[in-house]
Amino acid sequence: MAEQIVIPPTTDRRKRYAALYPQVAALLAGEVDAIAAMANLCAAVQQVFGWHWVGFYRVVGQQLVLGPFQGPVACTPIAFGKGVCGTAWKEDRPITLPDVDAFPGHIACSAASRSEIVIPLHGRTGAVAAVLDVDSASLDDFGPEDGRELARLCRLIEPLLP
Fold it and tell me: Quick check: bond before 72 cis, omega within 30?
C-alpha cells in the first residue's frame, strides 16, 4: 500500500495523471470497502491537482447522498435530475461545465466554484451507483483529458459499488 502519492514537479496534466493512476491502483488494490476507496481516491486527486472540491455522492434511493470528499462543506441530498450531479445521474453521462453559472438549476454549494466536472460511476448491476464531482475555483478548468482520466480512476472503484 502506498504511504504517499508522488507526482513529478510539472503542471502537465497528462504527466500528472500518468503518475497518479498506477499509484491509486496500488493504493486501492485489495480494498473491499467502497467508502474507503472513495475517500482515498478523493484525497489523492485533491493532493495532486488542488481543486476546490473533490468528492462523491452516492445513490441512496431516489437521491444522491454526500460521500467522502475533500474541500469545504457540501450540499446534500441532491434529487434525481437536479443540479449538475443529479443531471449526470439521470442522463447517465459525464458533464463538464466551463462556467457553472451557465447551467440552469446549478446547485451552488460554494460561491468559489467556477467550473465543474461530474463523472457517473456504475455498480455491479450496471446502474449509476455514485457520481464523482470535482469543482474548480477557475473558469474552464476541465477538458476532455480530465473527463477520460477521472473516469479511468473511477473504474477502479466501480467493482465495489452495489
Answer: no
Q: What are the boundaries of each domain within the chain?
A: 13-160
Amino acid at 69: F
Is domain 13-160 annotated with CATH 3.40.50.2300?
no
Q: Rounded to 10 degrees, what is the CA torsion of 14, 17, 21, 27? A: 160
Q: What φ, ψ does residue 52 adopt, rounded to 5°?
A: -60, -40
User: Helix, strand or coil for residue 97?
Assistant: strand
Task: For helices 13-28 and 144-154, give the axis angle rounded to 10 degrees.
Answer: 10
Query: What stretch of H or E contains 65?
Result: strand 63-70
Q: What is the pTM of this model?
A: 0.94
Handedness of CA 156, 23, 34, 73 (dihedral sign): negative
- C-alpha cell read off for 74: 457540501
List, for residues 140-161, the tens digit of each pLDDT value: 999 999 999 999 999 999 999 9
